[in-house]
Design brief:
Layout: E1 2-4, E2 15-18, E3 23-32, E4 38-43, E5 49-57, E6 61-66, E7 72-74, E8 77-80, E9 86-91, E10 97-99, E11 102-105, E12 109-114, E13 121-123, E14 126-129, E15 135-140, E16 146-154, E17 158-163, E18 169-177, E19 183-188
Parallel strand pairs: 1-3, 2-4, 3-5, 4-6, 5-7, 5-8, 6-9, 7-10, 8-11, 9-12, 10-13, 11-14, 12-15, 13-16, 14-16, 15-17, 16-18, 17-19
Length: 192
Amino acid sequence: GQDRRDGLLAYATALHLDNSWRTNVSYSSAQSNTSGTFALYLENSSSNTFNVFLASNAAGQAGQLSGSHYNTIDRSTFAANGNNWVALSIDDSNWNQLGRSYLYNYNGHGLRLQIDSHHNYVYNSTMVARISGGFGAMLSDVDYNDFDASVFIAGNGTGLYLTGASNSNITGRTMTGAGASGAGARISASSG
């Protein structure tokens, strides 16, 4: 594995791990300012660790995990400002941990788990969306994901949205939604 710490990757344009494993990134940041790109992109990468990491994108999505498994993200921040993008998207990725982290999107959504992402664990984290109709976190077509002691906030939408999500365990401290069609939690075509 590789070890990156003490600002070695500070203010990088973007960090892309492709077929990488056991990379450790600590006390660092990655930034992007372009729509359609990511500050952090894990592609088919497993067993990587991000600790006290900042991923930010002023015009798009902060983070993306695709086909990536057994990764750990702890005490980290994903900040995005892209219209209808998400702060962090986890697609077709299993057994990842996201803990003590903050996901915020001023002009989009917080966290999205979708496309066969299973057995992921999110704890002590806050997910915030500010866009009209946005969601703090959305689980779509996924199974067996756990959320523990986390906060879901949508300034003008739905705090936590489950659609086609089965066997999910959620113990949230706060689920807050606002606006005409907002809700703290919304559940559709989900079971378990």
